């Protein structure tokens, strides 16, 4: 696990720029650094040593030294690919997975990506053609960004590295503010920085010698092969085999591997399978004297399977004190409250191991979110009640006081692309009208992502929901925060359930093997019943709960938020009276936690990345990579 940076050379760029860029992301690779320069390109690399610790230095070269690689991630089937390449005559000097990438690209070009199973982002420079090739894994586990304003071309594992380049023009992409307020992330290639783009999951770019950049898709998850003949028991049997094999592949390392452990089925299942291979230490996070703490569940389960568990705790002060630093490491504003827990969990875990397994992906691939249960009632309502009647009912009740069924009637008049709660996850169009200072910034969030629903037009609503989550919520929220919060602590997190072989099977599952009545991810739970105690396999999903809603009501934290909501930054973008109204509503008992947190974290993020009278080369010195100075929980 590592971090890398690079740029196409320009005459006015100081030679030490590449080093400064790499140092910005030193947290991703504190073990080693190295650089490549010629008259066309500069490349930098920071390494976190996991496999073949004594070798595997990057940048890495092909056999005739004409291609140069920098790589972040793990290729779990690299030994099989290595054998294929050896049969083609390639010689290997190390036992690291990165070497199969440079030789594989030499042999197959972009077709190399069809061979890979893993989490990865990498860049390869071809000195013969002057081209730069960049690729990102199938689901976006590992990040890759590029800056392209038509004159300057940069790439890096994290956006913050661009701050050190003199020709990087740091500008807020204000047009996307409404989209961020809706989703809490940007569900497209765009970012909150102008001319900075995510390389999308399952894509690669080629930056040509003439300065033109083109992107291509090499993988797309789809539901084209759903098999209605599959059964819960049959799918559970296949899942058991898949999870066992995937965990085994994800355990490859020359350092000790640990595992995150919550109270739920996903991380428990992953830990249980890993423990069959070797003793493994798990790590869990909770809160002092809090109903939100899951430590009793996790520690009891670890004891049952005779594995060591390390409980970690955090307080409200820990949570709020670290928020500005979290926004720095996040690159873009992200208001998922669980990010802070994940930071402290990673911080504590890194004191013991370099690699940790985690259970992300099960809900998206196997149907674990409770909202998926809404699909059938809405489908029946829209099938049997004419559209004009539904619209009339919605119009009649929309302005009435709340009553049971009102929300269903209002949403029942909308198509799924507008109704699905992820689309207006935090603020809907009318909410944004109230808080945005510039009304011209408001946009239709449903229209912004409608093309994703169009990809699965004609499929049942639950399948459309899952497809949407796999293409938005999973890469831009779940995996984004997992990468940033672990890597800022120099910890590699591996997700055995976000895997192309697991996904390949999940794409064939019919609804009846994903949900049954009110039971979510029924096949996964059935698979787990043969491996885990029933109380774990059947446990209702809790997510990553925290007492933040209660903390916001405490004076010392409420005052921090009030100060932010009346700050100059808040006045720049928002109607501050409306922000204070939302805060007061929460104090009065109407839960507005996610709205409050989304605005608050955006303000903190803006203050970190766009401070007044601060240039790019001095920005956020307090948030540099010396993480030992950051306050942590005991």
Automatic annotation (TrEMBL):
Reactions catalysed, as given in the entry:
L-aspartate + L-glutamine + ATP + H2O = L-asparagine + L-glutamate + AMP + diphosphate + H(+)
Gene Ontology molecular-function annotations = asparagine synthase (glutamine-hydrolyzing) activity
Offer one Pfam family short name for this entry. Asn_synthase
Question: What PROSITE patterns does this protein's entry cite?
Answer: GATASE_TYPE_2
Q: What is its EC number?
A: 6.3.5.4
- Ion transport found in the keyword field: no
Keywords for the protein's UniProt record, in alphabetical order: Amino-acid biosynthesis, Asparagine biosynthesis, ATP-binding, Glutamine amidotransferase, Ligase, Nucleotide-binding
Q: In which pathway does it act?
A: Amino-acid biosynthesis; L-asparagine biosynthesis; L-asparagine from L-aspartate (L-Gln route): step 1/1
Matching entries from SUPFAM superfamilies are given as: Adenine nucleotide alpha hydrolases-like (SSF52402), N-terminal nucleophile aminohydrolases (Ntn hydrolases) (SSF56235)
Extract the coiled-coil ranges from the record: none
- Taking every annotated instance into account, which residue ranges of this chain make up the domain Glutamine amidotransferase type-2? 2-210
The record's similarity note reads:
Belongs to the asparagine synthetase family.
Q: What is the name listed in the Swiss-Prot or TrEMBL entry for this protein?
A: asparagine synthase (glutamine-hydrolyzing)
In its UniProt entry, the species of origin is given as Secundilactobacillus hailunensis
What is the gene called?
Answer: asnB
């Amino acid at each position: 696990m590592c971090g890398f940076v690079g740029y196409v050379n320009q005459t006015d760029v100081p030679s030490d720029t590449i080093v400064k860029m790499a140092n910005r992301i030193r947290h991703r690779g504190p073990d080693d650094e190295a650089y490549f320069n010629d008259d066309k390109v500069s490349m930098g690399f920071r390494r976190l040593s996991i496999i073949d610790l004594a070798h595997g230095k990057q940048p890495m070269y092909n056999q005739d030294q004409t291609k140069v690689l920098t790589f972040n991630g793990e290729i779990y089937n690299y030994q099989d690919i290595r054998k294929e390449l050896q049969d083609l005559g390639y010689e290997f000097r190390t036992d690291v997975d990165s070497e199969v990438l440079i030789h594989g690209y030499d042999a197959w070009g972009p077709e190399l990506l069809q061979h890979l199973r893993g989490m990865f982002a990498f860049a390869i420079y071809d000195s013969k053609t002057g081209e730069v090739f960049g690729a990102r894994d199938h689901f976006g586990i590992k990040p890759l960004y590029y800056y392209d304003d038509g004159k300057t071309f940069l790439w890096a594992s994290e956006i913050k590295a661009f701050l050190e380049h003199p020709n990087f023009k740091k500008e807020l992409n204000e047009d996307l503010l409404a989209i961020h307020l809706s989703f809490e992330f940007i569900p497209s290639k765009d970012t909150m920085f102008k001319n900075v783009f995510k390389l999308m999951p399952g894509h690669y770019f080629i930056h040509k010698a003439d300065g033109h950049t083109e992107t291509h898709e090499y993988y797309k998850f789809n539901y084209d092969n759903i098999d209605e003949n599959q059964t819960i028991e049959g799918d559970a049997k296949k899942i058991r085999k898949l999870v066992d094999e995937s965990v085994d592949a994800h355990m490859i390392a020359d350092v000790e591997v640990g595992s995150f452990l919550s109270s739920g089925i996903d991380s428990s299942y992953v830990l249980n399978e890993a423990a069959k291979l070797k003793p493994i230490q798990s790590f869990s996070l909770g809160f002092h004297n809090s109903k939100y703490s899951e430590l009793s569940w996790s520690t009891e389960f670890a004891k049952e399977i005779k594995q060591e568990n390390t409980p970690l705790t955090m307080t409200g002060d820990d949570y709020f004190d670290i928020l500005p630093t979290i926004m720095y490491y996040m690159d873009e504003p992200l208001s998922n409250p669980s990010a802070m827990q994940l930071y402290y969990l990673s911080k504590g875990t890194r004191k013991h191991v370099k690699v940790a397994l985690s259970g992300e992906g099960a809900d998206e691939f196997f149907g674990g979110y409770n909202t998926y249960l809404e699909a059938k009632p809405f489908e029946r309502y829209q099938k049997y009640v004419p559209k004009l009647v539904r619209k009339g009912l919605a119009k009649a009740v929309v302005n009435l006081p709340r009553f049971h069924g009102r929300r269903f009637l209002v949403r029942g008049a909308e198509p799924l692309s507008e109704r699905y709660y992820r689309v207006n996850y935090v603020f809907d169009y009318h909410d944004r009208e109230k808080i945005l200072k510039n009304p011209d910034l408001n946009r239709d969030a449903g229209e912004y992502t409608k093309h994703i629903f169009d990809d699965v037009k004609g499929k049942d609503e639950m399948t459309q929901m899952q497809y949407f989550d796999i293409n938005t919520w999973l890469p831009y929220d779940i995996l984004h925060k997992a990468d940033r919060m672990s890597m800022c602590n120099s910890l590699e997190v591996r997700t055995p359930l976000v895997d192309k072989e697991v996904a390949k099977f999940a794409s064939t599952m019919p609804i009846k093997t994903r949900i049954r009545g009110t039971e979510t991810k029924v096949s996964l739970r059935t698979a787990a019943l043969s491996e885990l105690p029933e109380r774990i396999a059947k446990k209702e999903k809790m997510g990553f709960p925290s007492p933040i809603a209660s903390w916001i009501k405490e004076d010392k934290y409420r005052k921090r938020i009030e100060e932010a909501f009346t700050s100059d930054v808040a006045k720049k973008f928002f109607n501050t009276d409306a922000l204070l109204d939302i805060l007061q509503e929460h104090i009065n008992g109407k839960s507005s936690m996610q709205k409050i947190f989304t605005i608050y974290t955006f303000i903190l993020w803006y203050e970190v990345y766009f401070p007044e009278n601060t240039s790019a080369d001095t920005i956020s010195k307090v948030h540099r990579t010396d993480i030992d100075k950051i306050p942590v929980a005991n």
